[in-house]
Design a protein that fits this description.
CATH architecture of the largest domain: 2-Layer Sandwich
CATH class of the largest domain: Alpha Beta
Structural class: alpha+beta
Number of helices: 4
Distance between the termini: 28 Å
Oligomer: single chain
Shape: globular
Length: 128
Amino acid sequence: MRHDLLADTMSTIKNAEKAGKKECLISPTSKLTVNTLNIMKKEGFIKSLKFKETSKGGQIEVELIGRINQCKAIKPRHSIKKDNFMKFEKRYLPASDIGILIVSTPQGIKSHKDIKGASGGILLAFVY
C-alpha cells in the first residue's frame, strides 16, 4: 500500500540512477508528482517526461541523465519563511550552489532558487 506518492517517486528515481538505468517508470502518479518532475527537468536533473494513460490513472516514463546523486522527499514537511532558506539549504544540500529544494508555494511548486527571498512555502523534496 502506498502512502506517499512523492516519496515513492523519489526512491524509484534514485534506485534507477544507482543501477545505471537510462529510464524508469513511475506509477501511480499525481499532480504533485508531475509538477515535481517538471521542476527537476527544468533544473537539468532529468532529460524528459512522457505521460502514458492507463486504466489506473497513468504512468510517467522518466528519461534519466545520470546527474542525480541523492533525491528524497522531506518528511515531515517543514513550513519555511522567506528568510530561512539558508538554514534548510545547510541541512539538506551538500553546498550552497549544489542541488535544489523543491517548495510548494501559493504560486505553485517551484525550486528554492526561483523564490528565494520572495515568499515562503512548504518543503517537499531535495535533489542534488
